[in-house]
Design goal:
Strand order of the largest sheet: 3-4-5-8-9-10-11-12
Radius of gyration: 19 Å
Strand content: 15-25%
CATH class of one domain: Alpha Beta
Largest sheet: 8 strands, parallel
Pfam family, one: Aldo_ket_red
Protein name: NADP-dependent oxidoreductase domain-containing protein
GO molecular function, one term: oxidoreductase activity
Keywords: NADP, Oxidoreductase
Distance between the termini: 28 Å
Family: Belongs to the aldo/keto reductase family.
Oligomer: single chain
CATH topology of one domain: TIM Barrel
Number of helices: 12
CATH superfamily of one domain: NADP-dependent oxidoreductase domain
Number of strands: 12
């Protein structure tokens, strides 16, 4: 298997000192939500390949599986690999008595952290995100416990995922937030109105999940035909008949522009995210080494301001049909009762 052809630069994520590869690797799909778990030896080989290629920022969560993705990463990190990577995981979605709930109470935060450290086989996590915000617990209380975990050396940096601008500000006042993870891609741009400016004002790094539109910007409508019944993407509004037909036109335009530029549509879509600024780190996920190599190739795709504007016109407001999640789940940031479907977000 040929090595990834592009050297991966490093970047400062946020203003607190964390340095990561300019592109990360989202690990969720290896174990959960995107169909059946993939063979463990293949996924460990992929992770090792990514690290060797210079993609050292690995993203997981205790909810992926649950727990099985962290266990997978724990195995992949053995033999000296841990020292070469920046490891990010998340807490906040509890599976107790067969029921899912969002939790941010201090006892849960601490127990979740201890569980993740054990499964990952590490003493410290580089970046620890609150995966979803518990409206029942003031963010200041949750942050207070996270601050203690930093002081104890169990986590180095704190992040938030899918948080509102006001929550980000309140959390940052208790302890600096290093990164906010949010969905940002050519066809998911609602974060640009409020969240991105807030992060930039506060010196918080931006981690873009699903930068390829959950694979849609790689292969278009034919992606849906390949999804198993266990793949939660089958139930996303944008992938439903009718919506899919209209959204397919966006992909076809991206694909045509990619052909003109001599790259793949996924490389073009990823390059668009990279061109948003040097404070943005996309974390595309994959389960295939060849797709990983292609994603890394996006780092060498250069876009002019005119090309950026052209790309954005393809997925302008009103062009993308369907919400990010079922049940209008894209409106539930920080809400008390998010729909279950939205908890599988990355």
């Amino acid at each position: 298997m040929a090595a990834a052809p592009v050297s991966v630069p490093r970047m400062k994520l946020g203003s607190q000192g964390l340095e990561v590869s300019a592109q990360g690797l989202g690990c969720m799909g290896m174990s959960a939500f995107y169909g059946p778990p993939k063979p463990e030896p293949d996924m460990i080989k992929l992770i090792h390949h990514a690290v060797a290629a210079g993609v050292t920022f690995l993203d997981t969560s205790d909810v992926y599986g649950p727990h099985t993705n962290e266990i997978l990463l724990g195995k992949a990190l053995q033999g000296g690999v841990r020292e070469k990577v920046e490891l990010a995981t998340k807490f906040g979605i509890s599976f107790a008595d067969g029921k899912r709930e969002i939790r941010g109470d201090p006892a849960y935060v601490r127990a979740a952290c201890e569980g993740s450290l054990k499964r990952l086989g590490v003493d410290c996590v580089d970046l620890y995100y609150q995966h979803r915000i518990d409206k029942r617990v003031p963010i200041e209380v949750t942050m207070g416990e996270l601050k203690k975990l930093v002081e104890e050396g169990k986590i180095k940096y704190i992040g938030l995922s899918e948080a509102s601008a006001s929550t980000i500000r309140r959390a940052h006042a208790i302890h600096p937030i290093t990164a906010v993870q949010l969905e940002w891609s050519l066809w998911s741009r609602d974060a640009e109105e409020d969240l991105i400016p807030t992060c930039r004002e506060l010196g918080i790094g931006i981690v873009a999940y699903s930068p390829l539109g959950r694979g849609f910007l790689s292969s278009g409508a034919k992606l849906v035909d390949s999804l198993s019944e266990q793949d939660f993407r089958k139930y996303l509004p944008r992938f439903q008949p009718g919506n899919l037909d209209k959204n397919a036109q966006i992909f076809e335009r991206v694909n045509a522009m990619a052909a003109r530029k001599g790259c793949t549509p996924s490389q073009l879509a990823l390059a668009w995210v990279h061109h948003q600024g040097n404070d943005v780190c996309p974390i595309p996920g994959t389960t295939k080494i060849e797709n990983f190599n292609q994603n890394v190739g996006a780092l060498s795709v250069k876009l002019t301001p005119d090309e950026m504007a052209e790309l954005e016109s393809y997925a302008a407001e009103g062009e993308v049909v369907g919400d990010r999640y079922p049940q209008m789940a894209n409106t539930w940031k920080d809400s008390e009762t998010p729909p279950l479907s939205s908890w599988t977000s990355e």
